[in-house]
Amino acid sequence: MKKFLFRLESVLEQREKKEQEAMLVQVKAEQLYQERLGTLEQIKSDFNRALTDSLNQDPTCKLHYIMYQDLLKDKITKQANQVQQAKEKLDQARHHAIEARKERKTLEKLKERHWEDYISQLRQEENKQTDEMATGMHNRKQHPAG
To answer: pTM for this structure?
Structure first.
């Protein structure tokens, strides 16, 4: 019997590659999200420190701290928007990675079923050959050539 050949092997390989690429995009999106989130936390920390520091300052310095705090508030708003955008990209990347994994697994299951069918056919063929040999031996014993 012919050796096992899965006709969709090239498609399976393509799906594996697509899944790897999707996972790489997801990792990069996760890194970007974490980076932007860290930046946001740093800006918030700077804001809180400026707020605390401004409490013990004279009125002239307080004005500078208030202006600095306003600047930090704007930065916090902008960075929060960037964090949200990065989160949306991360969610999208996760979705694509999950879909790519499902597509690959579907083909792998199909390949597995084809393999099981192939093994079943091999066994049937072996059983058929064994039966034919047994029948031939039985017939020779029953009807010796003479």
So the answer is: 0.75
